[in-house]
Design brief:
The protein has 307 residues and is an alpha/beta fold. It folds into two domains: 182 residues, inorganic pyrophosphatase (n-terminal core); 109 residues, Roll (Diaminopimelate Epimerase, Chain A, domain 1). The chain contains eleven helices and eleven strands. Strands 3-2-1-4-5-6 form a six-stranded parallel beta sheet. The chain has a five-stranded mixed beta sheet with strand order 7-8-9-10-11. A hairpin with a 4-residue loop joins strand 9 and strand 10. Helix 1 runs antiparallel to helix 4, helix 2 runs antiparallel to helix 4 and helix 4 packs across helix 6. The radius of gyration is 19 Å and the shape is globular. Bound molecules: magnesium ion (3 copies). The site of one magnesium ion has 5 residues, from helix 1.
Amino acid sequence: MENKIFVFGHQKPDTDTIASSIVLANLQTALGKNATAYKLGNVNKETAYALKTFEVEEPQTLNEVDENCDVMLVDHNEFAQSVNGVEKSNIKMVVDHHKIKFETKEPLFYIAEPLGCTASILYKLYKQNDVEISKPMAGLMLSAIISDTLLFKSPTCTDEDKKIAEKLAKIADVDVDVYGKEMLKAGTDISEFTPYQVINIDSKEFSDKNARFEISQVNAVDLDSVFSRQSELEDAIQKEIKEKNLDFYMFAATDILNANSKIIAIGNKANTVEKAFGVTLNNNTAMLDNVVSRKKQMLPNILNNLD
Ligand code: MG
Ligand code: MG
Ligand code: MG
């Protein structure tokens, strides 16, 4: 029997990471491999809604891998965002749509495309390999595209993502707009989360030019209700800054209906955020008009303004 392959996405999993792990494991299994999907943390409410709708089980949690493990990464490539021990494991494949900060000792399949979603790349892999797409897999890939592109509103969304989503919606037998809004809304309910949980729903740490920072994002349908908790969110952010020795922390609540983000930025180098977006922080907050994408708007602007 061939080695088991562990398929997983990034820590603090989002819908693309969970869906793409399940889908790539499904595709690899169809191609005769012994592949299993894993998650590196709890699934969020949006993802749970997608899994329930298409009747797919949540993957098991993976805490670490070692040098005996064959792994495939989806929706990430930076080791800092991956599983413990990943640098020692045998990385067989990466399927991703992020900037590349990656090095291995062995050759591998590295499939990267600048599309809005990893799942769009996986759709193309099914086609290339002539493997049929089941309704649940189509539903998961569609959910991932809706999630990563904020229902096609994000500047990360390409024409190809839209076309693929249309095809997947037919197989999944859902109305994209109706299903998409319901799924996104399911992810915005943070009322029962502690401040620590809120800032950790979807946060990523980055380091560049001697600066270490974190960008956290939550989706919202009502920014005021998120910011009614501003002071306790700031306490949680201050704690993260101290514990991780961060130069600054940016928390963004993204209004999924109006496609804007309101941010909290704190830390010694929080002025980087002001420069990056041409705003002045007022009580640590600012409104970023038409900014919804961490990958294509928030992160590059910040990276360009680090000193
Ligand atoms: Mg992701
Ligand atoms: Mg993604
Ligand atoms: Mg994301």
